[in-house]
Each structure stands twice: as C-alpha cells, then as structure tokens.
Amino acid sequence: MIPLRHLVVGAQGWWVRRRTDVLPPAGGPVAGLVGETLSAEPLRLGVLGESTAAGCGVATHDEGFAGFLARGLSDLTDRPVAWHVVGRHGATSRRIRHRLVDELGGRYDLVVLLAGANDVLSRRTTAEWREDLTGILDALASRADQVVVVGIPPFDSFPALPRALRRYLADGGRALDEVAQQVCADRENARWIGADGIDDVGPDFFARDNFHPSTHGYRRWADIVLAALPALER
Q1: What gap in Å lies between CA 176 and CA 170, rounded to an integer?
Q2: How high is the pLDDT of residue 104?
C-alpha cells in the first residue's frame, strides 16, 4: 500500500506544477568583469548549477547570485573579479556532471556549485546524489583552486509549496546536505556552505513564482555565502 503521505505529497506536487509559472533564465551576458581592472590580476569565479545559477527570477545576472557574489568578492579581496555562469533550469546533479561542467571550461580560483534542489524534486536517492556530486568535484579538481558546494535552500520556507510538500522536500534536502558535507570533508579544496540564514524569509525574498529568489533574495543568499567563504588570496 502506498503511504498516505506519499499520496498527499504527489497530489500537492501535481497541483504546484500546474499553477506555477516557469520563469526564464536571466538574460544578457553570462560572463563579465567587475572591480578596478588596473589594481590586480582578476580573481576568476565560476558559478555552476541549476536554475538559481541560471538566474531564474531576475532579468540579468547582475541582479542574480553571480553578480552579487562577484561584486562582494571584489570588495572582500580588493581585486577585480572575472565571472562566468553555466546554469540550466531543471538540471540535476547528473546533468551538471555530464554536460554542464564541460561548458564551464577554463581555470578558476573559485567555483561555486548551486545544485541539489532538482535532485530532491526528482526524488533521486542519496546514493545517486553522492555519485554525481563526487563526479562533479572530481571534474573540477583540476580546474579550480577552491570549490564551494552551497547547501540546498530550505523548502519549508517556500510560500508556493503546501505544508505537507514543504516538509517532505525539506527532509529530502537535509538528507542530501548531509551527504554533501561528507563528500566535501574528504577533499582539501572543497567546502560545503549551508543555506542557514535564508530559513526566515519574507515575501520579498522570492520572485513572482514564489519559488525562485528575487533580486533581494539573490543578494541575501550571496551575502550568506560570502560571509562563510574560506580565505582567498588578496
């Protein structure tokens, strides 16, 4: 017999998909340079992952996670920051591993990975997540001095989701976060940074779909990551 909780969650998931707008990724350039270019060699930043990396919910990457992170890094290090984004709406860790990592290309001082939400939504197992996250970090090991894996945002704070679905997805997110911490702990150049600090958010955190961040939401999320980043060479 299918547990009642799974029936309720399945019905609520169908209802949410039917009524939620699919927002496009951010427009404009997917790479740029911020900061005073004459002061020092630019710090090379890559942002890789799912729809939040792609900037869904805002018009351009300047208003999204990558833009705020790049400007914050420039302020912290007193260096210009050359940033590059590779993100896809709906991308699971498997797609990131087998398709998007190669699109990132180049060599980076720091790569920030935004992934896992779609693995939760797709009901992928912790074993599948571990395998693909490990593969992503293996592929980035020769391309980035440091890799930051950002924790999955707390689904129980998402206003677009009914209560039972929020709890179910939040439990899934916490399970994947535990695995991500374990995977990163075994690597010298990888660090997991949790999404603590965006679990108490208001309506202004979200875009009009009540699911992806707004400009304010991306700024707040980038600030949380910046505050927890390991020291970078100035």
Answers
A1: 10
A2: 93
Task: Work out the mean pLDDT of the chain and round it to a whole number.
Answer: 86
- What backbone torsions phi and psi does residue 44 show, to the nearest 5 degrees? -95, 120
Q: Is 67 helix (H, G, I), strand (E, B) or coil?
A: helix
> Does residue 121 surpass a pLDDT of 90?
no
pLDDT at position 178 is 97
Structure confidence by residue, pLDDT tens digits, 32-83:
999 876 667 899 999 999 999 999 999 999 999 999 999 999 999 989 999 9
In one-letter notation, the amino acid at residue 32 is G
Buried b (16+ CB within 10 A) or exposed e, 181-200: eebbeeeebbbbbbbeebee
In the chain, the amino acid numbered 135 is: G
Residues belonging to the chain: 234
In Å, what is the CA distance from 169 to each residue of 21, 55, 76, 116, 234? 19, 22, 34, 11, 39
The class that CATH gives domain 29-228 is: alpha beta
Domain ranges of the chain: 29-228
β-partners of residue 46 are 84, 111
Q: Quote the Cα angle for 178-180-186, to 5°.
A: 110
CA-based nearest residue to 144, from 190, 75, 78: 190
Give yes or no for a contact between 112 and 64, defined as CB atoms under 8 angstroms apart. Answer: no
